[in-house]
Each structure stands twice: as structure tokens, then as C-alpha cells.
Amino acid sequence: MDERRYPKWVGAIFGLLLSGSAHFIAGDTRAALKWYFGISLTGTSGLLILALPGTGSFIAASALLLASVALWVLMLKQSYRPLPRFRLSGWIGVIVLVIISNIGWQYISDLIVRPYLISTESMLPTLIPGDRVMAERVTYRFSKPKRGDMVLLSTDGLNYPALKSGVFYIKRIAGLPRESIRIQSPHLVVNGEIIKEPAIFTTLSEHANGFVLAHTMPRLPSVLSQPEDKIVLGENQYLVLGDNTESSLDSRYYGPISESQIVGRVTRIYWPLSRVGL
Question: Domain residues for 47?
Fold first, then answer.
């Protein structure tokens, strides 16, 4: 074995740590950049498209993600090559690049899409415990949330005894800025009119008990617990409800949320496969 070179398996390890790094060390900078950006951009594009609603986007996203995996396997195969030896500083440089790259792509991915695991029954029958969903974070950079949108929201800024800061929940937008909201069970009433559009609100009002008032509980205040109670939303405020209001901690208890607390729009169940869609 040539003592001036590392064995082939070392090249595969480098490729595993950072796509294209083995090619770069071998002196093929063009190939290194091709593999790195090709694999990263294909995978990221697949995740973004996966977050878009519709069967077509699911098929396109699946194709892109499979292509990303195929490219990664091919890159690893080509990375299995002898590499020239280098000093400790070179190893440190590679490790630093791996860390920076992973942090960078994770940051970019978080700006685009956020996965979430459903662990409660608050969004039944739409979402069930065990569903994994995607919340895309692009739409609300260009448009306002709409009534009926399911959103991922942050509890930061919500001062309520039963909520911890830094926790995320999925709820449905029920009230928009400057509207007056109350519940006339089983209906949601906005500005004095029963809400029937979008159609999901008619469906929910006819499901089980429909929209119900908040349960009165010791040490847990509520703002919509009596038929005469109403919430008047301010500028950039939204009222959010769980689809299963019998078992949901939502705006009936802690009041409206601000637009800044909305993390993204929930658009798809991506796992399990039997539940794909929305």
C-alpha cells in the first residue's frame, strides 16, 4: 500500500461526512462542487415541494428525494478511492466544514419547511396522533393567513398557566383581524353570522359536538366559556381553534395570537404512507 495515500475506505468516510469532499481532497474541485450542490439542492427542493398540497406535488417531491438519495449513493461509490495524506490541520478543516455545512443547510431547511409530529387528539378528525405533517414557511412571507388554514404556532409570548414557552401547536385559523368571534354551539359565529365557509367549518360543526365553549376549570382562565362571551380581535391578531374543541387548548382559553406567533402553514401529512395527504 502507498504510504503517501489513505486507503480507499477513508475516501468513502469523507464522502459520507460531506458530499463531494473526497473529490475535493483528490483535486477534482469541479466534481466536488457538482456533488455537493447537486445533492443538497435536489433534496431541499424535494422537501419544499413535499410541503405543497396535492397529489402532483407529492409525486414530484418523491421523485426528487429519491433522485437525491441515488446521487448520494453514486457519490459515495466514487468517493471510494485512495486519497493523498494530509496533516492534522487538514482533518480539522474538514470537520469544521462538515459542521458549518450541516448547520447552514439545517438553517435553510428551517426557513422553508418544518416537520411536526401530532401527539394529541386536538385536531381530530383531520389529524390523528402519530401523523407527521409538514408546515411550509414560504406562503405567509407573501400573503396573510386565511380562515380555515391549519397553522403551526409558537407559544412564545402567550402568557397562560398551562402553556410552556417555546412549544409548538397546530391549530386552525378561525378568526381574522378586527373580527368579533363567539361560539353558539355547535357553530362558530363571526360578526354575528354563522361561519359556513370554507366548507371545513360546516363539516366540523356537524361532527360530534361541533364547536363547543371552553370548559370551566380551576386555576385555568378562559375567554370563551359562556354563550354571551365574545372576542374582538385587534390588528394582526387571529383566533385559533382545534378541530376537536372538546379536547383542545386554544384561543377559547388563552385568547388571540399575533401574526408573529404563526410559524407556518400546515399543508400535508407525509407519514405514515397510509395517511399521506390532507
Answer: 5-113
What gap in Å lies between CA 125 and CA 207, rounded to an integer?
9
Name the region of 178 (left: φ>0; alpha: ψ -120 to 50; beta: rest): left
Shared domain check, 246 and 146: yes
Closest CA to 117 of 62, 167, 49: 167
State the angle between helix axes of 55-79 and 8-17 in degrees (0 to 180), rounded to the nearest 10: 150
pLDDT in tens, 70-129: 999 999 999 999 988 877 777 787 788 888 888 887 787 788 888 999 999 999 999 999
Of 25-29, 68-72, 191-195, 200-204, least confident by mean pLDDT is 25-29
On whether both 234 and 123 belong to a single domain, the answer is: yes
Bridge partners of residue 271, in order along the sequence: 132
Q: How far apart are CA 185 and CA 228, in angstroms?
A: 11
Asked if 187 and 199 count as a contact pair (C-beta separation under 8 A), the reply is no
Domain tally, the chain? 2
Q: For 134-156, b where at least 16 C-beta lie within 10 A, e where not — what string?
A: bbbbebbeeeebebebbbbbbbe
65 and 142 fall within a common domain? no
Residues 73 and 174 reside in one and the same domain: no
Contact 20, 75 (CB under 8 A): yes
Give the per-residue pLDDT at 3: 63
